[in-house]
Amino acid sequence: MRTGMFALALGLLCLGFLPVLPSVGWLLLLFVAGVASLFTRCWPVGCFLLGLCWACGSAQRALDDRLAPELDGRTLWLEGKVVGLPSRTPHGVRFELEQPHSRRGELPRRLQLSWFNGPAVRAGEQWRLAVTLQRPAGLLNPHGPDREAQLLARRVGATGTVKAGQVLSAVAGSWRDELRQRLLAVEANGRQAALVALVLGDGAGLAREDWQTLQATGTVHLLVISGQHIGLVAGLLYGLVAGLARWGLWPARLPWLPSACGLAMTAALAYGWLAGGGVPVQRACLMLAVVLLWRLRFRHLGATLPLLLALVAVLLFEPLAALLPGFWLSFAAVATLIYCFSARLGGWRPWQAWTRAQWVIAIGLLPVLLATGLPVSLSAPLANLLAVPWVSLAVLPLALLGTLLLPVVGVGEALLWLAGGLLEVLFSVLALAASWRPAWVPPALPLWAWLVVCLGALLVLLPRGVPLRGLGGLMLLALWVPRESVPLGQVEVWQLDVGQGLAVLLRTRHHSLLYDAGPAKGEYDAGERVVLPTLRKLGVSHLDAMLISHAHADHAGGALAIAQGIPLTRVLGGEGLEGLGLQPCFTGEQWEWDGVRFSLWHWAEGQSSNDRSCVLLVEAQGERLLLAGDLEAAAERAWLASTETPRIDWLQSPHHGSRSSSTEAFIRATAPRGVLISRGRNNGFGHPHAQVLERYRRHGLAIHDTAVEGALRLVLGGQGDVEGVRAQRRFWREAGSG
């Protein structure tokens, strides 16, 4: 039985590693082979093939429900019903629309929409909206998050920006929406948003600083409803019945164990319903149901069986769940506890078991955090030692009881005030822990080093006295394996995918330079959210120079966050920026790093900020790259007039391919063999312009575009070609038309 279930789980999990999905013909063939294997009693092969077929079929249905390519980037009038809890932001509202329809074409069943400066939107309302729709996509950088996979796992078929709209059928709002408003209105020591997250699973109202504190201390799971909360509520009911039975207070005519399991499951389902029944809640309820069934009937079969059953049940219910990091973290945490606490000789006192649970989970989750690219919290074991019982045994019961008793005047508010005060104390302590030990974003590891870390974690978690346990600690040192160095005389160039902006990392053997820092607008800062994490995952712990071409927000917006987040030796720029101590860019300044020459050019007489962009020419073993910022036609002419040898090999497209740049004379004189375009998908500026693209093609340039290929990598001096991150095929990724 276990072998067949394990094979079924493997077949379901294979989905996340497929570069493409099998065709219908291949799926039918695999299905027939799987059924035949079962009839011939080759259970593992049959279960594996059937699991793979089920997962692929489910994924194909999700892909088929995406927005049609011909509607990508178009603005349509559509109608649909608001579902879930719309979330207010400082700049508007975000919400999901279900079963939308339009006379202009067939739409996916679920849309995720943003409405900047939009009115209040309530769950259950029917709206008519003018929406600019996009196929699911997101920024794609080396070792970074994959938003396409996340949207597919949630079965969101399109995203969009609302331009205008009118409500067709106003409703009083869903009961969850009304309850959220009621919770936000109570006095809870300023922690109303945290109570909403804890009770309703809606963390949209949490301040950015609070999220940073939770991430830095590894305690996000405490405020985002997860298996821990579902298990706690169920455990409280189960423990209450078990305690009453032990003390002889439970009715003798009612068997206590079935009653305890039934009440625990009922409480878990009620809490999941209160939290909106999202994918993590569904996963937690399925896992709990399997565990309770095991406790009721199959405890003699061992502790690993419910974990395997829960894994299979979750994946059969939603095969795409394996595309979400939370899936792997949830099962890895449970598997680690079973691995460390079951089948041990002797016992631990409760306080010993609790303290050891924290550090074993920290080590057990390390390989998963590395594989998913998530930060590693160095303070998590200590922070969770306090935070988990604080939230589980004090805050959550008070919050749920206070919510339940809100109709009783004064009682519910008092309990929520107390819960909010306890949360305020907790956040104060967590902030101290975060400042003491911030989260660590480790460099991405090669596969062999990651496997060594996995084996090391398994050995470290073995009981004391087991041979080779000490070797595990040494194997964990593979976390600091040196990154592959760039050969002398060459420079590795990464044009990051930052949307409508620019950020280019250049690394020689011993030096690193960042040209531009990505955009920033409102609360979104690409320097903090994209550039800094990518630098760390690429193993860059120090920048010898940061060069900001000019002061426009799409190039300089992330500069301050980067300067605060990573050590910097020098900051250069074509225009002054506050708070950076920026040195001016001068024409003719040159330097050499590891056999690679860097040269600056700046047109101080430029009439616009774009024309005053600081230009960087990089030369490596006869191969040349020009980083041109936002140069326009006049500045291009000035650069040509001041340059004796304008020929280059690679060009960063000036001004993102704007019609005011990349003139015929400039392209003819520089004669690059390829151009690198950095821009946002379906951007409002029309970049790159069709005339510019035609000019590039007419001159035979290879066109590489971050909106199509993700982040772009070039080894200058190696005479190679440009590679896009999107070239690493996954079945859910597609090269967008832009």
Automatic annotation (TrEMBL):
Transmembrane helix is among the record's keywords: yes
CDD domains per the UniProt record, alphabetical: ComA-like_MBL-fold
Keywords: Cell membrane, Membrane, Transmembrane, Transmembrane helix
Transmembrane segments: 38-57, 230-250, 301-321, 327-347, 359-378, 390-408, 415-436, 448-466
Organism domain of life: Bacteria
Residues annotated as domain Metallo-beta-lactamase: 500-681
Cellular localisation: Cell membrane
Membrane topology classification: Multi-pass membrane protein
SMART domains tied to this protein: Lactamase_B (SM00849)
NCBIfam families (alphabetical): ComEC_N-term (TIGR00360), ComEC_Rec2 (TIGR00361)
Name of the protein in question: DNA internalization-related competence protein ComEC/Rec2
Upper taxonomic lineage: Bacteria, Pseudomonadati, Pseudomonadota, Gammaproteobacteria, Pseudomonadales
